[in-house]
Amino acid sequence: MDWTAATPWWVGAGVLVALELATGTFYLLMLSLGCVAGALAAHLGLGSAAQWSAAAVLGFGATALWHWRRARQPRSAPAASNRDVNLDIGQTVKVEAWADDGTARVRYRGSSWSVKFAGPGTPTPGEHMIVAVEGSTLQVAAQSN
Q: Where does CATH 2.40.50.140 sit in the chain?
């Protein structure tokens, strides 16, 4: 079996893709693109320096671009208060009476839950919106109309 100048680049790209599948590190896919660029440069008959340059420019450029793109995206809310993670966020409960420590018991989804007031001011009885869930305790704030 004869190895061409492109073969090590293709093997490197395959290894990086396999490592990405094993680790979930998306940056390895960007580096594998660099290996593909090196392989394509080899197929075009370019020299070793041009192959390495193509691999470096595309691989590290794509990695830097991906890093910059991710840094500019807004961070998601913590899981305890993220509606995409917990569908209870935004639901309402009716609090009949509050204890002095800002806690109460409510009926929600067919069972009794502990609630803790997480809004501004003093808790008052009435409708409250769930703003977070910590373990089996609902964090609630006054329902805004």
A: 79-142
